[in-house]
Each structure stands twice: as C-alpha cells, then as structure tokens.
Amino acid sequence: MAQLLLIRHGQASFGSDDYDRLSTLGFAQAGTLGRWFSACALPVDRVVSGSMRRHRETVEGWARQLLEPASDVVVASTVDERFDEFDHEDVLTVYQRAIGAADIDTTPAALQRTFLSAVTRWTSGEHDADYIESWRHFRERCLDGFASITDDAQPAKSIVLFTSGGVIATICQHLMNLTDEAMGRLNWSLANTSVTRVRFTRGRRSLDSLNCTAHVDWARDPALLTYR
C-alpha cells in the first residue's frame, strides 16, 4: 500500500506580529524530524506542502537534514494552496465580537476554551457570512486536495505532506467519521511536527497512526514537544 505522511508545521511565532513564520524552536523541530527520517531510512517519493510560510520553512528545515536521494525529491516538491490552514485569527476575532468580549485571555486553559468555542461557532454553518472562509468551503478544499493525492499515487509510494493542524484534523475527521466538535478538539491536540500516517490503495484509505512524535523521543529532548 502507498502511504501519505501528514506533517504539522514546526512551532510558529505565536503572540508575535507575524504568526506565519517558524520560531527558533520550530526550525529545531523540523531539523530533528529530518534527522529522524534519515536515521530510520524512511522513504520519500514525493513532497507536497501548503503555501504558507510556516509550511515552506518546515520543509526547508526538514530537507536540510535528509540524506540523498530523499533530499533530491524536495527540489521537485509541489505547493498546493488547498492545504493552507483556515484563518484562525479571523475565527477568533469573529467569535470575540459575537460574544462582546474586549480581549481574549491567552492563558493556556482559557485560550483552549475560547478556541474550541470559536471553532464550534464557525463549524455550525449558521454564521457563514461572518467569516473570510466558511467551514464548508475549508473542508471541501482540504478533502479535494486529499483525494487528488490519494487517487493519483502509484502503489508503494510514500508521499510527505506539510500542512497545518486544521487540515490534518479535517482529513482525520473524514477518515474516522468524527463530529465537527471532535475535529476541533483533535486540531487543538496535534503536536508541532507530529506525523500522521494514512495508508491507501485505489478506492481505499485508512488512518494508520495519529499525532506520532517518535522523533522527539528519538532525540531525547522533551523541549521539542510543543503544541502552540
């Protein structure tokens, strides 16, 4: 069977003026992932990424640590905007405005509650006109991209896709028939540079592993395990 490895980007710059770039730790996470790929001799036949800066920087940090011939595949990598993340800032801002909150509490527990509530409002479909992109449109484009990869691949191919938590959670929701609420919780729980594996043949797709952080264990550096 072929496999698709879904990689969440490295830690971005949460709380800064430009979230869409990797932090120093994010680059370290990407590099560790690349070294782990090389140490385990994991096959890489094709590389795809979303178009966001944090996706591209994760690919770059990962690729620098790969051994040939895997590193050669990165040169021919494909950028596909269907795997871009939803605008989480818009989803949070719209929710904040809807409940009349002046500010969002960014302490971890409070931010989690707010994020999940904001995503629940967004995925309800009752307020689509409030958002830059509706949940329905986001889900459709993610699954369209997923189908294009898994329908097109040849047997025994290994495809690596660098994207974001919302995209990965949406694909997993589709594969496991999860509710929208469960999708939001899964999104929140995905670790930076975690690996989610999907096995597939023509007409059949199955989730093989979810949110794997074996490269962090391999590196023996718990500081590499982050979620924001």
Automatic annotation (TrEMBL):
Top-level taxonomic group: Bacteria
GO molecular function, a single term: hydrolase activity
Gene3D superfamilies (alphabetical): Phosphoglycerate mutase-like
Keywords annotated in UniProt: Hydrolase
Keyword Hydrolase annotated: yes
Tagged with keyword DNA-binding: no
CDD domains to which the protein is assigned, alphabetical: HP_PGM_like
Protein name stated in the entry: Broad specificity phosphatase PhoE
